[in-house]
């Protein structure tokens, strides 16, 4: 069973027998990390006895302070490369306290220097190393400090260094620290950060009938930078302990000069999934970089070319400040799926194109993403003043989600979307677990305990539960590489399933050879693929370059008995079952099981099986048209019709988005600009404008030194959701046209409540 860092911290807190107040809980997290504990009954040097008080360690966030010890103040040296305590208060460093976690801070002075200690001396550094820049997952910065109650004087603090677990003294670090006081000051410079470009606070949380007010994003991948081995295949973080400069740095380190090592991004974005010339790329892959420039790499603060969600799939589009701006516009529920792909990771690592921070296996990345989602919640809490204070709240029940949203915050549901779920591959590999009913129950219990509530049984590639749904193009090659089986497509497809990803022509016609038994030994030994990707691929170049097979194809197999067990066990736990990556025969079988159990389903890529999703109490996702027509309402007409369709099939008449950002899915492009729409467009979004709830005002969005233009760039990142909504509002006939969008969080939670009700009725 895998143990994540979150699980270890939870275990440590439970063993410590922490107090129920928030300060005690956060203090226990800190103690688990640093090894620092305080025993009761101590006596300080000032004669105080009993238990040391828990001084506030959260209220320093974003404040300006000097650091005093007795009659001396922490002061930068004349050379500017060190700190020491000196007698002049006027010369004292003015520190902006930037929270890096709960009760943990960067001390950033008025001239842009950090208080740092790597191995003892107190250094002043204007740039910091980080795990991202060093591509070293074990690296801990010496710039992070934890205020604690001083064991010498309980009315003062001591300052612990996170890197080496030692305490600040007057001339460096030691096991015993000096008492210090943080004195409020002026003259600080704020730590680098992106702006919200919005003002106001969330006020509206319900409708007059009591239903929740808010939009759901049913399908999101906030932390994809921790997928794919944690390297730079996907670049940029939603947050970083050391700030935006480390969350969103220049991607040249990973993607190479002018993006020439971003092979996956190039194939996916430049050529398109249907047009990538894989054989033409082989000489470039052997050479280690593309023969032509791919993209400009500058990150913070220039952001010359990225983020740009409509055209750039391998760069972060959900930095926490951008997500906060979307929250202010009405986004109140997000389903955060951990996603990754071991085949893509093995290719780039095996060819020496990019480095990783840990192994490429799917569940390694899933575990890390779960941990980092909790770390992101803590990080946002830390910026907001303490535990539970942030707007980003992970929830584990629909009742919690209701409480969070009614309280004016964003509820986050944890999910998984990956191919080799639980490492249960379709072909057993060395080191894989024995995937039987007991193992599946164990894994579901474990991930449920971590907060996972939504899950795809499969994603793209075959696994032990069901065939994958493929991709119809170059990503489909990965299914062959993942299993050693030829592609398994047939034209004998279920009549009642008319959609799905496994339909239409086969891009790799030469790889297709349908087999009689889905679970069977593979005819090709591709076990050396991770070590020598191109060598293995080259053995099959003749089959790869054969022309496409034209026809209406689907996967030649259905869900396995183990897959049916997985669905039943998910239903027993009231989990949200994501069905949209099931291939056609498996999709049909899943609905037979779901309808027999009267259990709701989530179709977050938009499938609804002619309304049967809604008849079960399930949800799908929506979108707006991009180009306006001659009459008002043309961009929202499809949305309005969809809401009526849902109502006609007995569903709750509301639907939210499923942006799939950071999931290699693209985003809404612009209306304006040459070739973007067939007819001239008018009425661009202008500033300022107010939210639909009229409680927040939005101004021109800026990222660093780059000003964004939704009209000509589209949905550059999630933070332009306000503009997307405003653009639709300007075209809608009335405000009521969009009301079902703002009821979509209510609709999703009703689906989740029904899942729990059915689990109880089924004896779960």
Features:
single chain, Trefoil (Acidic Fibroblast Growth Factor, subunit A), 27 strands, 6-stranded parallel beta sheet, 8-stranded antiparallel beta sheet, alpha+beta, 764 residues
Protein described:
By secondary structure, this protein is of the alpha+beta class. Helix content is 28%, strand content 14%. It has a domain at 63-184: Trefoil (Acidic Fibroblast Growth Factor, subunit A), CATH 2.80.10. The protein has 23 helices and 27 strands. Strand 8 and strand 9 (123-125) form a beta hairpin. Helix 1 packs across helix 2 (22-34), helix 11 runs antiparallel to helix 23 and helix 12 runs parallel beside helix 16.
CATH class of the domain at 63-184: Mainly Beta
Largest sheet: 8 strands, antiparallel
Helix content: 25-40%
The radius of gyration is 27 Å
Strand tally is 27
What name is given to the CATH topology of the domain at 63-184?
Answer: Trefoil (Acidic Fibroblast Growth Factor, subunit A)
Distinct helical segment count: 23
Show unreliable segments. 1-41
Signal peptide: 1-26
Protein name: Membrane dipeptidase
Biased composition (Low complexity): 33-52
Region (Disordered): 24-55
Topology record:
Blueprint: H1 5-16, H2 22-34, E1 42-43, E2 49-50, E3 64-69, E4 72-76, E5 83-86, E6 95-101, E7 104-109, E8 114-116, E9 123-125, H3 131-134, E10 144-149, E11 157-161, E12 167-169, E13 172-174, E14 181-184, E15 198-200, E16 215-220, H4 244-247, H5 252-255, H6 263-271, H7 278-287, H8 320-328, E17 331-339, H9 342-350, H10 362-384, E18 392-394, H11 398-406, E19 410-417, H12 437-449, E20 452-455, H13 477-483, E21 489-490, H14 533-538, H15 541-544, E22 554-555, H16 561-572, E23 576-577, H17 584-597, H18 612-615, H19 637-648, E24 689-690, E25 696-698, E26 702-703, E27 706-707, H20 710-713, H21 721-731, H22 739-742, H23 744-761
Parallel strand pairs: 16-17, 17-19, 18-19, 19-20, 20-23
Antiparallel strand pairs: 1-2, 3-4, 3-6, 3-14, 4-5, 6-7, 7-10, 8-9, 10-11, 12-13, 15-25, 21-22, 24-25, 26-27
Biased composition (Low complexity): 33-52
InterPro entries: Metal_Hydrolase (IPR032466)
Signal peptide: 1-26
């Amino acid at each position: 069973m895998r143990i994540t860092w979150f699980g270890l911290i939870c275990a440590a807190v439970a063993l410590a027998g922490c107090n129920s107040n928030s300060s005690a809980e956060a203090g226990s997290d800190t103690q688990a990390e640093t090894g620092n504990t305080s025993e009761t009954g101590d006596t300080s040097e000032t004669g105080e006895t009993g238990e040391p008080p828990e001084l506030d360690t959260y209220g320093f966030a974003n404040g300006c302070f000097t650091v005093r010890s007795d009659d001396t103040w922490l002061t930068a040296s004349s050379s500017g490369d060190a700190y020491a305590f000196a007698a002049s208060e006027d010369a004292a460093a003015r520190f902006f306290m930037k929270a890096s976690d709960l009760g943990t801070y960067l001390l950033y002075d008025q001239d842009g220097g950090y208080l740092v200690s790597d191995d003892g001396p107190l250094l002043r550094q204007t740039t910091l190393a980080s795990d991202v820049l060093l591509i070293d997952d074990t690296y801990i910065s010496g710039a992070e400090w934890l205020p604690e109650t001083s064991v010498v004087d309980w009315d003062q603090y001591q300052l612990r260094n996170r890197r080496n677990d030692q305490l600040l003294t007057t001339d460096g670090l030691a096991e015993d620290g000096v008492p210090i006081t943080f004195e409020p000051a002026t003259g600080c410079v704020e730590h680098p950060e992106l702006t919200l470009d919005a003002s106001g606070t969330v006020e509206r949380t319900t409708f007059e009938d009591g239903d929740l007010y808010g939009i759901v994003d049913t399908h999101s991948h906030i932390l994809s930078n921790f997928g794919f081995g944690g390297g730079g295949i996907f670049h940029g973080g939603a947050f970083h302990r050391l700030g935006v400069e480390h969350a969103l740095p220049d991607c040249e380190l990973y993607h190479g000069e002018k993006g020439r090592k971003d092979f996956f991004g190039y194939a996916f974005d430049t050529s398109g999934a249907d047009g990538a010339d894989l054989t033409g790329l082989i000489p470039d892959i052997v050479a280690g970089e593309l023969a032509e420039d791919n993209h400009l790499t500058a990150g913070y603060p220039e952001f010359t070319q990225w983020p740009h969600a409509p055209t750039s799939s391998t760069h972060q589009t959900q930095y926490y400040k951008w997500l906060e701006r979307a929250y202010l516009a009405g986004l109140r529920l997000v389903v955060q799926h951990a996603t990754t792909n071991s085949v893509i990771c093995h290719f780039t690592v095996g060819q020496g194109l990019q480095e990783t921070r840990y192994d490429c296996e799917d569940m390694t990345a899933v575990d890390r993403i779960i941990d980092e989602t909790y770390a992101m919640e803590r990080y946002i809490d830390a910026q907001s003043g303490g535990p539970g204070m942030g707007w980003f709240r992970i929830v584990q029940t629909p009742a919690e989600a209701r409480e969070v949203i009614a309280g004016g915050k964003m509820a986050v549901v944890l999910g998984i979307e990956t191919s080799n779920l639980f490492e249960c591959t379709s072909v057993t590999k060395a080191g894989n677990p024995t995937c039987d009913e007991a193992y599946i129950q164990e894994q579901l219990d474990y991930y449920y305990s971590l907060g996972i509530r939504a899950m795809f049984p499969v994603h793209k590639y075959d696994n032990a539960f069901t065939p994958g749904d493929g991709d119809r193009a170059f990503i489909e090659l990965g299914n062959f590489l993942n299993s050693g089986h030829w592609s398994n497509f047939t034209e004998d497809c279920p009549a009642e399933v008319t959609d799905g990803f496994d339909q239409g022509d086969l891009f790799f016609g030469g790889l297709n050879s349908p087999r009689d038994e889905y679970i069977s030994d593979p005819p090709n030994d591709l076990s050396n693929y991770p070590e020598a990707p191109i060598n293995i691929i080259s053995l099959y170049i003749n089959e790869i370059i054969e022309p496409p097979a034209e026809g209406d194809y689907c996967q030649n197999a259905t869900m396995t008995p183990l897959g049916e067990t997985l669905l039943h066990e998910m239903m027993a736990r009231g989990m949200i079952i994501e069905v949209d990556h099931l291939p056609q025969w498996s999709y049909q079988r899943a609905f037979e099981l779901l309808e027999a159990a009267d259990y709701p389903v989530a179709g977050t890529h938009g499938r609804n099986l002619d309304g049967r999703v809604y008849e079960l109490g399930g949800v799908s996702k929506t979108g707006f048209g991009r180009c306006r027509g001659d009459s008002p309402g043309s961009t929202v007409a499809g949305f309005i019709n969809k809401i009526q369709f849902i109502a006609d099939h007995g569903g709750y008449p509301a639907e939210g988005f499923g942006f799939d950002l950071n999931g290699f899915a693209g985003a809404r492009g612009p209306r304006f600009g040459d070739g973007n729409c067939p007819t001239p467009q008018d009425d661009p979004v202008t500033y300022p404008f107010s939210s639909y709830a009229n409680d927040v005002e939005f101004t021109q969005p800026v990222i660093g030194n780059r000003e964004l233009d939704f009209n000509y760039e589209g949905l550059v990142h999630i933070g332009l959701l306000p503009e997307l909504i405003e653009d639709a509002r300007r075209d809608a006939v009335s405000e009521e046209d969009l009301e079902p969008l703002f009821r979509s969080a209510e609709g999703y939670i009703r689906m989740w409540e029904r899942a729990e009700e059915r689990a109880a009725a089924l004896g779960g």
